[in-house]
Write a structure and sequence with these properties.
Helix content: 10-25%
Distance between the termini: 39 Å
Structural class: alpha/beta
Radius of gyration: 16 Å
Strand order of the largest sheet: 1-2-3-4-5-6
CATH topology: Metallo-beta-lactamase, Chain A
Number of helices: 5
CATH superfamily: Ribonuclease Z/Hydroxyacylglutathione hydrolase-like
Largest sheet: 6 strands, mixed
Order of helices and strands: EEEHEHHEEEEEEEEHEEH
CATH class: Alpha Beta
Strand content: 15-25%
Shape: globular
Number of domains: 1
Number of strands: 14
Oligomer: single chain
CATH architecture: 4-Layer Sandwich
Length: 208
């Protein structure tokens, strides 16, 4: 299974959108970068599914453009005009060469879900490795209307309960991906560090 960040060269604000190739070709989030459908097409001829971590605009703005290019199913927790498959907590979804468990992780967004596989975690915005706020384990912002720090803390705890030690790579909605170093931090260490900072009520941004 290969994973490509198809919004890596974006010149405007967007999430990381990840293309997984293998037995089932899947795009995790679509981002807001114009032309992302062309980048996907540079890698693959077909797309089996689009799987959304949540529906903030930086994650879904290019959904129609991608669907105009590819006849793909759309998996999402919350309702959406293009949704073909509803996601629920503890569901599983095949992506690339792995089967991923759906973990409901609200707080940053009410419809937020993360995807936990055997070797990879797609965490959306609930936890990221580096994002300008913290460089080695950061949590999703919770200072906007409809967001909740308390619920995000519980989501991080839930995520840790579902996270096997075999997961070695974290693909987050922003910042860099993180791959565990046998002599250094694990993915669990990164999530635990983000949880500790959230529990200590550390500010995500100075004006929070």
């Amino acid at each position: 299974m290969e994973v490509f960040n198809v919004t890596a060269d974006a010149e405007q604000f967007t999430c990381n959108a990840y293309l997984l190739t293998g037995e089932r070709t899947v795009l995790v989030d679509v981002g807001s970068m114009p032309g992302v459908a062309d980048v996907v097409a540079d890698h693959v001829d077909h797309l089996d599914a689009i799987v959304l971590t949540h529906q903030h605009s930086d994650h879904v703005d290019q959904l129609e453009a991608v669907l105009d290019r590819f006849d793909a199913d759309v998996y999402a927790y919350a309702d959406h005009p293009h949704r073909t498959h509803a996601l629920e907590a503890d569901d599983t979804v095949a992506m690339g060469d792995e089967t991923f468990e759906v973990v409901y992780t609200p707080g940053h967004a009410a419809d937020h879900v993360s995807f936990v596989g055997e070797t990879a975690l797609f965490s959306g915005d609930v936890v990221v490795y580096n994002d300008g706020a913290y460089d080695d384990g950061s949590f999703g912002r919770t200072d906007l209307p409809g967001q909740s720090r308390e619920r995000l803390i519980q989501s991080l705890r839930d995520l840790l309960e579902h996270l096997p030690d075999s997961v070695t790579t974290l693909y987050a909605g922003h910042g860099d991906s993180f791959t565990a170093d046998p002599a250094g931090d694990s993915v669990r260490d990164v999530v635990e560090r983000a949880l500790a900072r959230a529990e200590e009520r550390q500010l995500k941004y100075p004006d929070e």
